[in-house]
Amino acid sequence: MEQPLILELEEWLGTPQGRYVAAWEQAQFNGMVANAFGYHAIQIGLPHWDLLQANRIPFKACVSIESASGLSRPLVVAEPENLPFDSQSVDLLILPHGLECAPDPHQVLREIERVLVPEGRVVISGFNPWSLWGLHERLPGLDPLVPVPAPLQVSLPRLKDWFKLLSFELDRGRFGCYVPPSFTEAWLARWSFMEKAGDRWWPVCGAVYVVAAVKRVAGARLVGPTWTRARKPARRAAVIAGRQFNKHSGDIRK
Asked: How many domains does the chain have?
């Protein structure tokens, strides 16, 4: 029986290129979940990789398709396409490479939308099929660099379309990992100067991306204190539409 992609990815994280990608993604997840608040935070997949460590939500758990030992947080064995949580019960949900490793990524996103509370946040990482690494995976005769084949990788424009269909609003994100395809730590180190150059000059060519989105619900509002003191009307700020990508950084804009 063929091993699920998510399990192959977990093994791949121990390779030189896997550790390189994991270090960059850990920093991005830390920044995107640090200020997320609520009562329940869930990581889907890769249970031995703690991507919620920078978050202060009191209850944290992980969902995996198989059991795992040696974890410091609760583990729920379930398929990402059928999450065993009540509707609108999760405040923060993270999905490292979960869409491209799932047999039905659309159903995974629908489940995420179902279990998230209004204004809940999802953070997703994935391989960028339009990067040098993605090109490497498309060229015939070359050894695979990553366990996820290029046709299964979800591009950012496609992910943004899926977000719109499910009323998710892209909040922020980044591309990263600009080193050319390399299989050894020595070559990864030699090409390390490409990180700053890529982040500045060709950010959309990063090998991976991490994005955060917020679940928007029409008519929903946050409950806060009732203010009895009248406020002066604030001046409206002029809104200037920006480009999707800032050419001087790897930031992903709306």
From this structure: 1
